[in-house]
Amino acid sequence: xxxxxxVSQTAKAQVGDYRSELAFGVSGGYMLSNVGFNPEIPQQNxxxxxxxxxxxxTCEKYFKSICAIVAELNFAQTGWKEELLTADDLPVINPATxxxxxxxxxxxxxxxxxxxxxxxxxxxxxxQFYFQAGPQVGYCIGEKTKMNFDFxxxxxxxxxxxxxxxxQDTMAVENKFDYGxxxxxxxxxxxxxxxxxxxxxxxxxGLGDIxxxxxxxxxxxxxxxxxxxxxxxxxxxxxxxxxxx
Length: 245
Description:
The chain has one helix and nine strands. The chain has one helix at 2-11, and strands at residues 17-38, 43-44, 46-62, 65-82, 103-121, 126-147, 177-191, 195-206, 221-238. Strands 1-3-4-5-6-7-8-9 form an eight-stranded antiparallel β-barrel. It is elongated and about 70 Å long. It starts with a helix and ends in a 7-residue tail after the last strand.
């Protein structure tokens, strides 16, 4: 995809229909997150928001495929929410409060994904389906712990397996830089005067770990996983001439 765009930019490729279009806008959405711990930590998905800015460069229409490169800069609330259960799959009750113990760690990230994108459908006015995939990097700018019990009085007796140790509950993020692969698909509705509206579902798989993964460390893996649903609005900054609607 990147080679196609570069070649078309410099040589104005004759096979495809050359484009040079730039669009800029904002986005916002909701994400479900967990961390792939090994040894495994039972979890539920943690909900959070994501918002940011988007830049899209459309370089060519190759046969019926509209080729573009998309870059985003997003603020994202990710992390994990532990599922504290006994051996009988019942909630762990804290003796001091009489309530089921609940623990979650919220991590705030700045994320920069860069996508190669293929779209099929209308460009100027109407509906278009698209798929995009590419690398993503991120940096942790903050973290916050939420729990409903005093950590020194947590219920060790009823916890099972690795949750008896639960080292992650007191460990700050060790590797703030994150990287991985993201992919998504969605629908785009365009209007020549009010811009482009995109609804997308996306999945991110982290290739890095938030904690150390050497033989001396407790976890062999601790990578981020995100499911994202987001809405984006783009406005054309530069358009190509003689493009069919």
